[in-house]
Amino acid sequence: MPLLDIPDVFIGSTDDGHTFVVLNRRIPAADRLLTDAGFLAREHLGRTLYLLPPGTAQDAHERAGDAMYGLLAHTHDFVDLSWTTRWSPGTPEADPDLRFQFTDTTVTATAQTTAARSLLEQHGFALAADGSSYQPPPGLDQRGLLGAVTAAETHAYTHGLTVRVGLGIPTPIDIPAAPRRASPAAPSPPSGPATRRRPR
Questions:
Q1: Of the residues 47, 62, 115, 126, which has the fewest C-beta atoms closer than 10 A?
Q2: 33 and 21 Cβ atoms separated by less than 8 Å
Q3: Does an H or E element contain 142, and which?
Q4: What is the rounded CA–CA span in Å between residue 164 and residue 82?
Q5: Burial of 107 per CB tally in 10 Å (0-12, 13-18, 19+)
Q6: Residue 59 gets which letter from DSSP?
Q7: Which residue stretches of 74-129 are H helix?
C-alpha cells in the first residue's frame, strides 16, 4: 500500500514547496474546509488533491491548521508529514536537527545533533554501515515505516528538535495515482460457520 493511502487524511509537502492534502475516504465537509483555508482542488490520476502553492511557512502553517482543526470533527485518522507547514514564532528557519527521506521501499534518517541521534536510537533506528545515516527496524511494511517516522517526529517536536520529512515527491505532478478499487467479486457460498467481526 502506498504511503499516502494509509490514513484517512494525509498532509505532505513536495520537494518544490507545495503543501498537499490527500483524502482516502469521503469526508463531506472536507472540500469546503480545505478550499475555505485557501487550498486549491485539482484532479490528478484518479484522486482529488488539495494544494497550497509555495509560500511562507507561517501562511502554510495557519491555513493547514485551520483546515485540520475542522477535519478533526470528522476523523482523527490523519498524518501530517509536511515540512512546509512547520513554523513557530521566534524560531528561525535553519537546517533541521533531524531529516527523514522516504524512498519507494524504505526510509533513511540523518541526525545533526547528539539529541537527535539519541532519539532515533530510542525509536529503534540503527546506524547504517556508512556511519552517516540511520535505518528503521527491519521488516517494516509501509504502514510500519509511516508509524515509525510519525512517532519519532512527534517525539522530536516535544523536545524542541526541528524535523524535515522528504517524501520523494519532486512536484505535485509526481504524486502517485489513486489506488485501483477492486471490482466486487461474486459472493461464494459459505463453507462453514460465519465469522463474527469484532466491533470497532
A1: 126
A2: no
A3: helix 142-158
A4: 8
A5: buried
A6: H
A7: 114-122
Residue 171: all three cell numbers together: 512536484
Strands 47-52 and 98-102, bridge-based pairing: unpaired
**Closest residue by Cα to residue 161 from 56, 88, 106:** 88
Contact 60, 80 (CB under 8 A): no
The rounded distance, in Å, linking the Cα atoms of 119 and 98 is 10
3-state secondary structure (DSSP) of residue 73: coil
* Contact criterion met (CB below 8 Å) for 171 and 99: no
Give, for all 200 residues of the chain, the pLDDT tens digit.
578 999 999 999 999 999 999 999 889 889 999 999 999 999 998 889 999 999 888 888 889 888 988 898 888 898 999 999 887 665 556 689 999 999 877 899 999 999 999 999 999 999 998 888 999 998 999 999 999 999 999 999 899 899 999 999 999 999 998 887 544 444 444 433 333 333 33
* 13 within 8 A of 167, measured Cβ to Cβ: yes
